[in-house]
Amino acid sequence: MDSKCLLAMLLWCVLLQLKPTVEAQKLELIYHNGTLLKGSFTVNILWYGNFTQIQRSIIVDFVNSLNSATWSQAPSVKSWWKTTEEYKGGSTTLSVGKQIMEPYSLGKHINEKQLYGLASRFKDVRAINLVLTAKDVAVDSFCSGRCGTHNSIDGKIPYVWVGNSETQCPGQCAWPFHKPIFGPQTPPLVAPNGDVGVDGMIINIATLLAGTVTNPFNGGYYQGPPTLPLEAVSACAGIFGRGAFPGYPGKVLVDRATGASYNAQGRNDRKFLLPAMWDPATFQCKPLV
Ligand SMILES: *[C@@H]1O[C@H](CO)[C@@H](O)[C@H](O)[C@H]1NC(C)=O
Ligand SMILES: *[C@@H]1O[C@H](CO)[C@@H](O)[C@H](O)[C@H]1NC(C)=O
User: Fold this and answer.
1) Closest approach atom of ligand 1 to CA 31
2) Is residue 3 part of a domain?
3) What pLDDT, in 10s, does the model give residues 89-127?
4) Which residues constitute the domain of residue 113?
5) Largest CB tally within 10 Å, which of 20, 157, 181, 247?
6) How far, in Å, from the CA of 137 to the mean position of ligand 2?
7) Total count of domains within the chain
8) Tens digits of per-residue pLDDT, 45-68?
9) Residue 245: inside a domain
10) How far does the signal peptide extend, from start to end residue (predicted)?
11) Is pLDDT at 161 greater than 90 in this prediction?
């Protein structure tokens, strides 16, 4: 028996042992008596720096798939989003609103205050402002502990920022499409839209939109300190399918034609890989497949 074979057996044993404990894990996010976002909201997008038209369409299709009436083929992005209804009842409908294409007007290093300024460029109410930074833009703390963030303008209009990590830290912010920086090395998965950076952004946008609607102003659902909360999806970090354990995303679907991994389908025949969301009905992180 060669060493590869031994290693495979060892990994398999680890997997078998970890599987039941991971799935049985119970988790409680506490509701802090504040506002959640319920009803209809538009998602305004500010593109900072260069994004190709294809990259933009992948992200717009994803956001519009969250409530798409025209696409509900299982497993769907829409059914993933539906779990947010379990949080204090009632649904949240999101769809893409205005878009701004912003060239490199502030240069290639953005700080927190500038991020706030970019998010404040939209003046609509009942909106979530989404600021997306291109792969060649550095943002304060990007890659050193965060892949994006959500916050609000004057405690009123929520905003989300996510960066494209492709050239800066794909092992951290585009895992499992790139090998991780630390820990067990399972082979990277093939990104469902063929773009490691953008498919990684989808994971973070999904995480932060769910965190925004269930904890928009720090009075919603979370565990831990309000400055470093574990929210609807961030509490389930690293879990994409059943049997996940640190370094292994879990069992997901594979597209026979392209080899791409996915677990959710959306508009325009797109496929996405979405992280598990905590389900208040069962107190567990629920992967879609
Ligand atoms: C929510 O409100 C209830 C009733 O006023 C109170 O007992 C509880 O401690 C509050 N929970 C939090 C997390 O603030
Ligand atoms: C952005 O893309 C355009 C068109 O492809 C290119 O000319 C320009 O140099 C790019 N800007 C930067 C800062 O990379």
Assistant:
1) 13
2) no
3) 899 999 999 999 999 999 999 999 999 999 999 999 999
4) 36-286
5) 157
6) 13
7) 1
8) 999 999 999 999 999 999 999 997
9) yes
10) 1-24
11) yes
| Residues 19-47 as b or e (16 or more Cβ within 10 Å = b) | beebeeeeeebebeeeebbbeebbbbbbb
pTM above 0.85, yes or no: yes
Q: Tell the residue nearest (CA) to atom 4 of ligand 1.
A: 33
Q: What is the residue-averaged pLDDT of the chain?
A: 91
Output the residue whose Cα is nearest ligand 2's atom 12. 50
Q: Does the C-beta of 181 come closer than 6 Å to ligand 1?
A: no
Residue 23 lies in a domain: no
Residue 73 pLDDT? 78
Q: Say how many Å lie between the CA of residue 107 and the centre of ligand 2.
A: 13
Residue 16 domain flag: no
